[in-house]
Design goal:
InterPro entries: DUF6638. The chain is of the alpha+beta class and 459 residues long. It folds into two domains: 159 residues, no CATH class; 198 residues, no CATH class. It contains 16 helices and twelve strands. The protein has a four-stranded antiparallel beta sheet with strand order 3-4-5-6, sandwiched between helices. A hairpin with a 6-residue loop joins strand 8 and strand 9.
Length: 459
Amino acid sequence: MKRLIEKGLMFGNLIRVDSSAWIGLYNRALKKLIGRETALTEFHIDISGYSPEIGDELGDMDYLAPDGGNRYFILLTTEQKTAPMLNADLSVLRDVLRRFITENESQLFSLTARDAVIGEIDDQVWQLRSPADLPAIRHLRVSADTTGNHVAEADKLTAMIEQFRSDPDAWWDDVLIARMIEQAKKSGDVLRHPIRLDHTDFEVPDFWTDRFGGTYVIRSAQEPAVIFADPDHEIEVEGFLTLTISDRHALAAWLARNALAEPIINARGADAAAILRQKIDFILADAAVWLCLDTGNGTRAELRRAAARMGDDLPAEIRGLSALQRYAEQGGDWPVIDSGDPAYFHALRATSGPARDLVNRLLSELAPQDVRQLFITHKPLFYRLYQDWPDAKRAYVANMLAREYAMDKQGTREALFGPEPDMAEPEPAPASADPWGIPRVSLSKGVVGPWGRASGGAG
């Protein structure tokens, strides 16, 4: 992992904490949350205030996520909104915390000027005993206050003020007036400087969790589904279609029926030929490493020369992706690519909509040789697989990501996946449209179904 850290591909964009004031506030917050403190004089924190250095010091890499409990957070500054979230067991946690900070920024700015803000992200589900409990996660609620309880103290004074205003006899209530004066010493002038966090509840229609071997819950689709990465955890979930990552044909059909994915070659604004060439490069580089073939600096020409030496070991995905690339560049007959073809999921990207990022994450798990998409959309799986790769592949991947992604993250994401989806509801497709849209387009022409012919086996 050291190579990734040095290139800014792991633990990047964290907030540096090196002042005695911030360290004191952090320790005060940590003491209140978990009863422990850090002796470090410098460390880095993510959007939730989690520090990998402190995790290593305490011997607990999940010290802000107690086993079976809600995720705690510590805010020292509103600038944490730009940082990543490490060790997230729920894919939406960073987005929810970022929105919480953004939508309450003026209040949080005032609070963090005097104290650390601490809190938790509550999924409002008491216990997750089986995958059948996951659909109960529909909303996340953020509860927050300073270590000095400034928000709670302000709420007390606000309640007294409301009582004073609404009770016609309050002018003669010396006890109430005395309590208000005393409370104002703790909370300040809440009329001129109100302390109230209004945006604390967030809907969660779709998410991925690392629970039960890795599980996707996609509720926003017309046909809601729960998808298991580990078949051993698969159970029926009421009201949901249940699938596993190995159900290639069923997954392809579900993505098509619900218009959740589209062929890259037909995606609006995508340079399909360039994207397909890059995918071929990644697959060849992976195969060359495992076959112990020298690829020099991993240039496209060197990878093609290595491919010529692979013979029967040439990856099965190459034939389909090369056919699609030729079609994108030269036209001609549409390649026949069905869901049994190893190239199939490499050739798709998610359509715009609320589940776009989650579907791209699912596609990266179905086609993990595309290490760039895997890194962008599914970092937990990327880091886990990275540890078992040969050093030659680690070096190639780290250098490629530093060169082709880290230099322009936003531009790369838009080139691969399209513009970020807006908040508007997508317009429903006309009844005559097939799942790929109008005109009818599929990866395979002349066969039944927009996902290709149903061939046997899982592929």
